[in-house]
From TrEMBL:
Superkingdom assignment: Bacteria
Membrane topology classification: Multi-pass membrane protein
The protein's name in its UniProt record: Flippase-like domain-containing protein
Keyword terms of this UniProt record: Cell membrane, Membrane, Transmembrane, Transmembrane helix
InterPro entries: L-PG_synthase/AglD
UniProt organism field: Geomonas diazotrophica
Keyword Cell membrane set for record: yes
């Protein structure tokens, strides 16, 4: 099912997850953790679950706008393929769910897998910019408890660095799109003295990337992408606040944004399928900045992860069963199609 190279990545991810779990549980008082779970207000779980699925639906809406230059796609197919893709991301290593998602929609809408996959690359760019914006707002506005002034100053410094990075990336993409040959040539000249082969590879990759970018030509499509991106992350961050309240933790909205930033970086780290361990450690680390005890913080992390893992996994498997497909067949077929195109 997996290549040798992928097996090594999977083993590395499992090792990192195991290490994270060891650090999390080695000094935990399970009696206090049981007390934290006993105080859980279940009424908050229902709106958190609904918002989680609203976030996935909004991802499908944004995907529709991103695919407009290729084809006008149906929301039903977009939503079910989104659920299937995130289910696969939870169960397969190396984020292979993106391939599964591209194949699922391409098969339903009659679009080549590579074309759909290119739209998902654009989606990741949209997510990246939105997360940078969240990071920027968080660093400049969050107020940490007394005694955390050093971290507070570090966050403000991080805000300035993030803002500079945000502007640099936007400028680079603008130049790459509007002045492609000049920008690629400049990169090649800068890298040639130190790493000529890397310069050639980078030029080829960027050239392929920029040629695959196809944004909607009308203002409505661009505005739709921007607004849906903001709503995607708003509905993803709100459940974090609800989970905090469910455990009797009442913090400003910026605290949920702060936690979400940690979670976003956590899923970038190699880990077991489902991001077990890395997700929980990131959540506990973020909560420690607000002086939340380890037992309560870990309890919040476990429920928050479960809310993001089990519902979409079950929904995705149901959609896969309805389409009379299996994870293994879809994964193998999507990889073959992408290599051929």
């Amino acid at each position: 099912m997996f290549t040798g190279k992928l097996d090594k990545k999977l083993l590395l991810g499992l090792a990192i997850s195991a290490l994270c779990l060891f650090f999390l549980f080695r000094k935990i008082d399970f009696h206090k953790m049981a007390e934290a779970f006993a105080g859980l207000e279940y009424a908050y779980l229902v709106p958190a679950l609904l918002l989680t699925f609203v976030s996935y639906y909004l991802r499908a809406v944004r995907w529709k706008f991103l695919l407009l230059p290729i084809k006008k796609t149906g929301m039903g197919n977009l939503f079910t393929s989104t659920l299937i893709g995130y289910m696969a991301n939870n169960l397969l290593p190396a984020r292979l769910g993106e391939l599964v998602r591209a194949y699922s929609l391409g098969n339903k809408e009659g679009i080549g897998t590579s074309a759909v996959f290119a739209s998902l690359v654009l989606e990741r760019l949209c997510d990246g910019f939105t997360v940078l914006l969240v990071l920027l707002v968080t660093f400049f506005t969050i107020k940490l408890p007394a005694g955390m002034e050093g971290i507070q100053r570090g966050l403000v410094t991080g805000g300035y660095v993030t803002f500079a990075l945000y502007l640099a990336v936007l400028t680079f993409l603008f130049l790459l799109r509007r002045h492609t040959e000049f920008t690629l040539g400049l990169i090649a000249r800068l890298l040639r003295p130190v790493a000529p082969r890397l310069g050639e590879k980078m030029e080829a990759v960027l050239c392929s990337f920029i040629s695959g970018i196809r944004l909607p030509g009308d203002v409505r499509g661009v505005v739709g992408i921007l607004v849906s991106s903001l709503l995607v992350w708003f509905t993803a961050i709100w459940p974090v606040d609800l989970m905090l309240r469910a455990f009797g933790v009442f913090l400003p909205a910026t605290a949920s944004m702060f936690i979400m930033v940690f979670l976003v970086f956590a899923v970038m780290v190699p880990a077991s399928p489902g991001f077990i361990g890395t997700y929980h450690l990131a959540c506990v680390t973020a909560l420690s900045a607000f002086q939340i005890g380890s037992e309560r913080a870990l309890s919040i992390a476990i429920v928050l992860h479960a809310m993001g893992f089990f519902p979409v996994t079950v929904a995705g498997l149901c959609c896969l069963w309805r389409d009379k497909l299996s994870i293994r067949n879809v994964e193998n077929t999507s990889q073959e199609q992408l290599r051929e195109q």
